[in-house]
Amino acid sequence: MKQSEYLRYDATALADLIRRGEVSSREVCEAAVERASSVNASLNAICLPRFSEALAQEFPEQGTFAGVPLLLKDLAQEQAGQPCTYGSRGFRNNIAARDSEFVHRAREGGLVFLGRTATPEFGLKAITESELWGPTRNPWDTSLTPGGSSGGSGAATAAGVVPMAGANDGGGSIRIPAAYNGLFGLKPSRGRIPSGPMLGEAWTGASSDHVVTRTVRDSAAMLDLLSGPASGDPFVIPAPAEPYASLVHKAPGHLKIGMFTSSPYDTDVAPECVAAVEETARILENLGHTVEYAQPEFDGMAMARCYLGLYFGEVSAMIAKARKEQGASDRDFELDTRLLGMLGETLPLSDYVLLRQQWNEFARALGAFFTDYDLYLSPTTGQMPARIGELETPAHLKIAAKIMLALKAGKTVHRSGQADQMALESLARTPFTQLANLTGTPAMSVPVHWTTEGLPVGVQFGAAHGGEGVLLQLAAQLEAASPWQGHYQRLDAAFPGQGL
Fold it and tell me: Nearest-CA neighbor of 31 among 15, 10, 7?
């Protein structure tokens, strides 16, 4: 299979070609390896290639995606006997003892693992620039970030190395790379895809596994493959009335959609992001949907503080785990990671519990919103992608350092004011995604809009818990009304140019 031919097909089409004997699994994987070899030096998207192992294996004959190549994210998507570094030098020698549920189900679906994709340390940033692996670059413009934390997966998928790649989302880490790389990215409901067997819930329920894809139907078929309870899951949510792969072929009916473009943290929103929402609203109205300005009513700064409390706690826990299990020391973690971990260690347990309990307020506010609207529409991100290296020393880390110096000196720290300042600095570029994480609701980024310079701009839709079906149906409708496949063809032909 020629590389040019390989690039024309999504995962569903490749699986169909293999099933019908028109091409072999080996030929498909060879084409994927050829593509990876031609673009990864420029992108640095694949941090742990396993090309030889993939080509040497006995290719699967059964499963939804039998013989189709997939890249795994180097964060939580553990593969037995293979490294899983979490983007950190503290875990550089970590070898997974067993498959995660994501990997187990992907393997059962016949997918062939080509390696692992880069992520920032512990998946903490909306950029993918770790000290362990170096910066990952955006294929639309290699001077820009592909976003994070699933930035390696986003860059590799957009560049056509694979038709889809593993991702997870604890604060926007599926949707942000989808927006910056011109991909479709769905974060499922809490509990839809199991986090086991190592965890009951990832990030206390804020994080979900899934994939980033070029097409909506690939995302739907992967959701069918990955969803459903596993033994020991903390709870079970109802399955869809029919497979998601079937639902995408049905219209969603008339939808009432609340649209907003203002940041919940009152931070600036780029004109390109606002324009993308407005253009999408016009398309939706032409499709027969009702769109009006409306947004859930909640305290944005309270949500930011709750998210940062989770952030601090998870970082300190991961550092402690690396020290205990890997013998890691302070020098094995990036400076900003150490600062965040120290803030987690100084956060009183009672404060952490109170912040976690407050998540319910945002869930109730969103529930009230969904009594009047079927979905919400917003920008996926508040800003366009940063330049590589632009955020090496972000302002929120300077604030964190001041807090830590004050604490070490025994000074009183006004936590609420400092936390608000940190929240604004930390979340200003991506203020729209955390709501879905803290409420456990599904949300997606759809690549409807491109700038005049040729950069993709994603728009976000959110639904009530368990509402993946209507999101996928609407996404398929938008994909038909405003096809984005032509943009990939342009990228495939032009890459690795510095701009299009």
Answer: 7
pTM of the model: 0.95
Catalytic hit among 100, 150, 153, 173? 173
Specify the DSSP element, H or E, that contains 53. helix 51-56
Let me know if 149 is a catalytic residue: yes
Q: Express each pLDDT in 288-331 by its tens digit.
A: 999 999 999 999 999 999 999 999 999 999 999 999 999 999 99
Which residue among 25, 73, 150, 426 is the active-site one? 73
Buried b (16+ CB within 10 A) or exposed e, 441-475: bbbbbbbbbbeeeebbbbbbbbbbbbbbbbbbbbb
pLDDT-derived band at 93 (thresholds 50, 70, 90) equals very high
C-alpha to C-alpha distance for 123 and 77, rounded to whole angstroms = 12
Average pLDDT over residues 416-430: 72
Asked about 100 being catalytic, the answer comes back as no
pLDDT by residue (tens digit) across 261-298? 999 999 999 999 999 999 999 999 999 999 999 999 99
Joined together, the tokens standing for residue 132 give 């362990």
Q: Of 25, 149, 189, 316, which residue is the catalytic one?
A: 149
Rounded Cα distance between 167 and 211, Å, is 5
Instruction: Confirm whether 73 is a catalytic residue.
Output: yes
Coil, strand or helix: which one is 336? Answer: helix
Token pair, residue 223, equals 């959701």
Question: How far apart are alpha carbons 50 and 252 in whole angstroms?
Answer: 41
